[in-house]
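Recap quiz, item 2
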Amino acid sequence: MRFNLLITGGLYNSQAGYSALAFAKATIAAGHQISQVFFYQDGVTLGSRLSMPLDDEFEPVAAWAEFAAQNTLALVICVSAGERRGIMSDAQAAEFAKGLGSLHANFSVAGLGALHNASLESDRTVTFK
Amino acid sequence: MSTLFTIHSSWYDTTWLFEQLGFASEGDSIVLLQDGVLALRSPITLGSFLAKCSAHNIDVFALADDLNLRGITSQYEEVGLLSIAGFVDLVVRHDKQVAW
Amino acid sequence: MSARKLLYIVSRAPYSNAVGQEALDAALIGASFEQDVSLLFLHDGVFQLVINQGSDGSGLKEFTKAYRALEDFGIDKVFCHDLSLAARGLTNNDLMRDVTTLTGEQLKSLVASSARVFTF
């Protein structure tokens, strides 16, 4: 079955990033496909390359980036929700004259159309808040 | 079309869903996860909610990992304990998910 | 592919978060895909539609004005849950636009018949 995931809970105000990652791993282990993971609302903070937890803490951004790289998974940040919260690529940051961007290299940026495309083409859309 | 309702927030923030709406239909399922599992420590209201679910043939589950993390053990036989793999299977068995 | 039923549910009041704006953005994109879009205001979400919002131009933007023009963007199914209104002492006369009020049973059918449900 084809899944797409929607994560709306933020880096440190929700367990969503952790729960969705465990769910994504189990989904792939069960032989399903994940077409896209879309980060919206406070969920965009999971794409921050500048997040720096203490050494012995779980690192949500790094964990997602590594999992995505291993499984060639698309991690997509909503452009407008990201810009509101200061999560943007180098190109966006340059456009706004804000220096370097804050988006992790394993994430990309797209509009809400990408969420709807993925949702309409998948068998299941699963949201984590 | 059957629906899988997932409850991600504390029972005390989402109890209105159950009280006002009775939103689930026969054949739907409910999964408590993240802070949703705190519902298993709401003995006064949870009992009547589970009775209602049972009467309408709505299954209720809690994600075992999230219970364990919070040091909560289920005292309700009606609540199925769910592994993360079991959660994936439940998503497959329902036509859609609605997250709260 | 024929149009599918997409339901967007707003259950939070405006101004203390971006939930309303971001739910609206998502619903408008859904409608631009020429899908069958419904927008439902539930629980504290009914406060999004209350008349006489605004702060004399200073501070927070009164983004909820956009709810008056939903039809222009292809969203003509706008619902409020009747008990959510009643519990807050609100009637249709307190709202900035026409809505269809739904009973709990009707709401249950709306959720059941939707292909995708996005909650905010």
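The mean pLDDT of chain A is 97.
The longest helix of chain A spans residues 16-29.
End of item.
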